[in-house]
Design a protein that fits this description.
Chain lengths: 159, 159, 159, 159, 159, 159, 159, 159, 159, 159, 159, 159
């Protein structure tokens, strides 16, 4: 495949930025699909709160997907966010089929957020030298996902 | 799996509505992922027009996905919009990897829209008696997708 | 009483459209009053979610009341939405007096929605031949009320 | 019925505030239903002006209904705004069935507003000592209804 | 002339949809021009109400014109909305030249709406089997025009 | 009084621009007070239309007052819009005290608009050479007031 | 002059409410004209702050003028806000002609606000028994004018 | 036909203003219909740009139509914007039937704009003495149409 | 300290208004800090509802703080809302450190609201004669806080 | 250089319009850069007022730059707004480097506005016959700049 | 106290992030209370500018307080923003009681901003390795506070 | 020149931040002027896309100019964005005079963006230690400009 978009990064920097961004695109698309799936299938006494909070998560995941994919294009790398690629490469832990109890949904979302955040933290380290512009995007994504991770955990927590 | 949501439809009506809606959910999620993929990977002199038009298609596909999935829940059927399900069951024709010429993207979108519309037309016939409420949603989806189908075709047409 | 507004419907079509619309007006006004009553009198740990969701139901019921009443006028039939008429003719199952536990409120709303939807489904069948324009309105009302019926049921459901 | 909401008012103050607010809720719901009934059934050369002005009255009546009912809950009293209660207890003078001439509608609305305002003035006096917070709400309602009373009268007046 | 836009309809379905849509485009453009003409030329004591209501009718007619014309393109048929075509083919009954009394304007609008609605009702029947997607658009247009027909009639009616 | 603001106009141009603008300020303030007076005191079957149209006239008069006064300051002339000055210098024909029949109000407004427009036309001629920038403002005021003059006349006209 | 608008107030209450409201209308119109005059004629290093703050005062004075005048109509009294009446009856202290230094403008505004507030305080006392609905409007006007009085004074103060 | 609306223009001035405005109304309605026709029938690789730009032209043409027609009423002349009049009197050069290539559409629009502008320039000269208020409207229309003329030409130009 | 802002109140009235307003400022700032503290530290199954409702309380407390403090300045009294003053003088009952269970948070908020409302009721009595303008503000604050008191209690209540 | 855009102006008219517009583009870009420079570098007790007012001037200068440049293109003349051209050809008087006292900034802005207005007045005269459409734009620019000239002068003036 | 929220940070990283965030929360709450105190108590010729600028500072301080507190929760640390904690731990330098001259207020704000910024710069250094996500928030806060520090200083500066 | 604004940076840090920010201000102003020049002078079949995209680039360049210049002031350095300075110091590669073909415009924009980004990357490295707050701004500018660089390149690319 040709490389029609040029970048100021050297090839190794470009490789690191490209791979970490591609992995982020895949994780975030999967996160958005998991959150939508949960949005539709949740039942239980906290249905309304959880149903609404899931749509906020969908919006966050979609917006950062676009940011990561367009950052990849900006460094000259073609992103791949097709269904097959997501199904194959996602680092999220997924969600079961069918109707789900609200407490189980919260567990599922906390687990998926934790998995995606953990991988993102590694990419923050990996891009610090390779491309601080890309790292700055990862910092923004991590900040928002860690905030949501707290909010979802808080629904399960007791003191 | 339990069936926690009841419906006024009889079991056969519910089965028909449920299956046609589930298939629509899958087709539309795939269409939204294909359009986003194209949105990022298109190059060529019509980049800007195509890039913007693809995001309009993404919005349409996402909104109708939600409408179809929540119609499924309304008739007591759990929808499945997970990445693996989409990758396996979609009736869209997909999109190749990597950067794509704008004219090829237009061909790809026209082809995917045609495939999705054709299946939707069958579901309009199938639900006419089974559930006119569900049929009415399919009519709305078809109206919008056929409008977009014209607009994408028009970019290729000559007279 | 004179009939100052003319219609393209023949007398029998007009009678069917008029009666089904009048019954819908009454059911929906009652539904809006029941939901407001619940909105004020609900107590319990899910107070806030239920309180807010009830106002969404009020808005839906009021908007469709207006649509149904103005569809009646459009086919030349005077609608009657006065308190006495509603108290006498409503097909909703009503709500008890005084403060109500949130879980009881959810049961009450699910029951009222189910009763109203069931009657609406009959009117969809009755108007298919008599007046498809009126039927199309009933399809829209049913689509929205069945969506709400799922959302309220989901708060009670377990899997 | 239990009294789950506490108040800083003493029992007699609470009784006065509660009764005047309950009566106001009932009058205002009836006023909103009468205005909607008129909104649909008015005919005559001033149809459009009257039709639009009635919807403004509906909005006013609905908003103050909510304010009065939630003021009742705030002083620990469960409000009752069900159709049967409204049909039985309203102090408004009502509206006839069927299509109505625009000049008759204006008469009807002026009469209903006058009746509701007169009762409200008594409640302003009754709550001055019992609960000035509740009185302040009645002052606001009276101010708006008396403004509308002028506007509706002005359509009938000659000089 | 070439046919650059394809459709899922068979030729006969396409013919029926195309002809009914073309006729609708012409009727609605004429209706918008008639309403604008009336908007400028009305005089009389109800000038302001009629002047404003006519612009609402213009907006409705323009929006549905676009919807019908783009539905024609969506089924592969080129719509024709040129002045000469409208002048020649419109099914509306038109409006006289020069200043017009407000009561005459109301009569004129009621008559034009009745003519357009009657033709639309025939197209609803004609497209039921040929193309339910197109029929659904006609149902929406009829619902709105019949509502306006009531409102304009109501200005002339007495009881 | 000192002249703290300078202008590119020569003294004679400045005198002409200043006097015509000052006269316009006074006429327009009076017009806004007359229209508000009418807005409050109108009665009759067209109360609502006239009441609303008068507030549109108030807004127009106020906005152009500000434009004319600030144009005066821009050419170095202090404008005077005090109540006493308006009472003494206005070229409008005024309005009687007390409640007024709607038809009389319309006559009064048509007369005041005609008087103000006539004076404005003279100022358009006077400023053509003296200051085309000021003339351009007068053209804009005349265009809007003449439009309103038609609309108010149209309420009285018969054909 | 006839009295076409009725009121629930007895004649003496109506007289008190009417006179206090009429006086308030006149004071507030004059205040709005004084503030506009100042808005145009202020010069000095604080021009921009003072110029902007004066327009906020104009808006406040205009809005409360309308509220007071329409409260007069609501109690059946015709308000008089004509230029001659304002010039003759206003209790404001006025403003000099021509360009004014910003510090002098502030003094002028503080003085006018103080005069208007003082008269308003008397009307609050006068209407307490006569008409608490009218008094409540005077309380709102006083609250806002006293806030502005502080803000204008603060520009002159030293500590 | 009677002349129910008076004007400050003398008969000859009124004749000139009336005729130039009537001609402008007709040209602009035709321009709006031509642009809509093009909006629906354009095909080719620049479909989306041209399709969107045409709707901007429609909006411009419609807004100025209304301005010109209401300027005619303001000078006492009844405007005529009916389909037959437009078909007969328009100075635009029109558009062919059926689907049109995007480059042909651009040619067509440039030609129509040029024709309409040329006629408008003559009306600017004709109204300079007769009615500068009307001329000022023509200047505004010419300014906008000449801007659009550049933009449409620019799509065809090479350097 | 000097007293740079004058008031129409006599010294004793000013003292009463000033003290009650200062105490209100302190209570409301503390209420806003308590609600923010709770907003951050709440955990439990109702996290989302409570978290959101607390921010509404913060907004209410902040807005009324500003209103009370600026009412103090309007009567010539310098308000004191510094952290040390709040910590020393607040009449609220406070909140414990660290993470808090949602049910405990609700108890805490109900208790703080009750304490603040009780003190406010005393100030309503104290200012009735001293300054009805200030009393009117306290009535508005009490109305809103008592509404919130019901809503928070309702989350704990059972029937 | 080729002339790809045609105009209805004859060559001499086009030359005059083109030269006056080009000079205006250059003056206004320089004015916008001078105002931004002042916006950043102003210090002194009126910092905030001056800083904000400068951004309003920037917006005015930018908007009119675009209007003048696009008017040049509309008459077939290529505008030149490049930094080097502005630095070479501007008729503004410029601004010194480094931090500037607020009173000096006001002097500088008044001087630059006066210089630009003076040149604009000459262009108004020059284009009266050559192109009244272009002249109309210059009138609008002059009106706004002269208003700003007053406002900036007013900050320096004493009476 | 239990630690119900988990984090991907190791204990030492968590300790550093938690302490720096807690200190930031306290500083920013105090800054918001100081700015509000100044907002109410400022007098002098620049009252309006300073009064408005202080509310912008309040908004900035409140928004970053929330961001810092919710970042603390996101890393598993309970923030403490209670009045007593702020009074005890704040690193801001505070503000005196009573009315304050505008120039003194500016000095006070510059001093408080400088103190808070200085501490923030240390936290930027401390978190670079411990948690770059938290550091990124401190960079954003510093950027905005340093901008405000310039703006407040600029009001005191001379050149 | 005096240095009226202080900073927490030491002199060497301040020098680095100041120089990199000044250079950025100059580059971005030039970029905005180049993009505006292109916006006006582009011709060709992609006129509309390019014309609109250039205005987005202008907005980006202007917003970041302001951010960089105000960051310079925040660290105590006076920025210089005057036309002469831009003409002399800009690192952009510029644009030719006169009408330009759309494809040439795209080349020109890609080249200018590449030149500006390259210099920005060096400043990111230079400020990492000197001032991470300034670096964070450069990261944000680079992220956006590199995104635009991709979008403009994409219009030229083939695969």
């Amino acid at each position: 495949m040709s490389q029609p978009i040029t970048s100021t990064l050297d090839p190794e920097q470009q490789r690191i930025a490209g791979e970490t961004l591609q992995d982020t695109v895949v994780d975030l698309i999967d996160l958005s699909l998991i959150a939508k799936q949960a949005h539709w299938n949740v039942v239980g006494s906290n249905f309304r709160s959880v149903h609404l909070a899931l749509d906020e998560l969908v919006t966050v995941a979609r917006d950062f997907t676009d940011a990561a994919a367009e950052r990849a294009t900006a460094v000259g790398i073609s992103p791949d966010g097709r269904a097959g690629t997501v199904a194959k490469d996602s680092g999220a832990i997924g969600i079961g089929a069918g109707w789900q109890q609200d407490t189980d949904i919260i567990d599922t979302i906390v687990g998926n957020l934790a998995a995606v955040i953990k991988r993102l933290r590694e990419r923050i380290a990996a891009t610090e030298k390779a491309d601080p512009v890309t790292q700055d995007l990862f910092l923004a994504i991590a900040a928002r996902l860690e905030q949501l991770h707290w909010m979802w955990q808080a629904q399960l927590a007791t003191v």
